[in-house]
Please model this.
Amino acid sequence: MREQLARNDLRQHREELRAEFIKYLESYDAAFMKTTYALTASRSATQDPDIFWWEYAGEEMRKLQHSYLAVCITGNSDVRQAARDCLGSIWTLGRTASTGDRTEYEQTKEESREPRDRLRSKMREQLNIH
Model:
């Protein structure tokens, strides 16, 4: 009986953790999509590079920041570090998008794949999904 309860608790914990991870990835994807919008809006390189977040992605970044904090609380150290790197990459991508430089944006976008892929991998490891 105790063993069954322990398995149920573990299963429930894993599902809650999985839900937090999914929220983070969904929030990241929403912010990522806003970078494309900022690029196509042809922001001037002379403007404040953080204007993207104020003008276009404020709500998405608030959700991403909230999800990031939840992942930092629930994730192991590898997941936390990967989430931190992933969050940094979206800030960099947004700043780059706000300059309107498509070439630099495409390069930064490509560089942002590695932290995102590493985060997904670390999340799968913690959830024991292979």
In short: Residues 89 and 111 are 8 Å apart (CA to CA). The chain has five helices and no strands. The chain has a mean pLDDT of 86. The first helix runs from residue 2 to 40.
